[in-house]
Amino acid sequence: MNADLANQTLGGKVQFEKSGLEASSEGDASLLEIAEASGLTPRHGCRMGICHQCSCRKTSGTVMNRLTGNTSGPGDESIQLCISIPHGPVAIDV
Questions:
Q1: In whole numbers, what is the pLDDT of the chain averaged over residues?
Q2: Please, are residues 90 and 62 in contact by the beta-carbon 8 Å criterion?
Q3: Nearest-10 Cα torsion for 72, 34, 42, 46
Q4: Residues 37-69: pLDDT tens digits?
Q5: What SS3 class is residue 45?
Q6: In sequence order, what are the residues at sequence separation of 6 or more whose Cβ sits closer than 8 angstroms to the Cβ of residue 45?
Q7: 3-state SS assignment for residue 44
Q8: Are 25 and 92 spatial neighbours (Cβ–Cβ below 8 Å)?
Q9: Exposed / middle / buried, residue 47 (Cβ in 10 Å: 0-12, 13-18, 19+)
């Protein structure tokens, strides 16, 4: 039930504010995958957007929801790391 990601320009610089780390991604890697590839271990559960264990605050930037294809607003809001894909530069409270 994944949204059509083929026509999206995805990826970007990700700032992990609590840890002070920064990473870049290209393609449809989720914020959870990017965090783990950077050596972080954020809380998570199902990895499918169901359990909400990986919810955190996005403080700036835009993400796309992997399940719905919807794009977030540019400001502060709650997101799920496992189904959120950076759409340009993003800062998250991880």
A1: 92
A2: yes
A3: 70
A4: 999 999 999 999 999 999 999 999 999 999 999
A5: coil
A6: 51, 52, 53, 54
A7: coil
A8: no
A9: middle
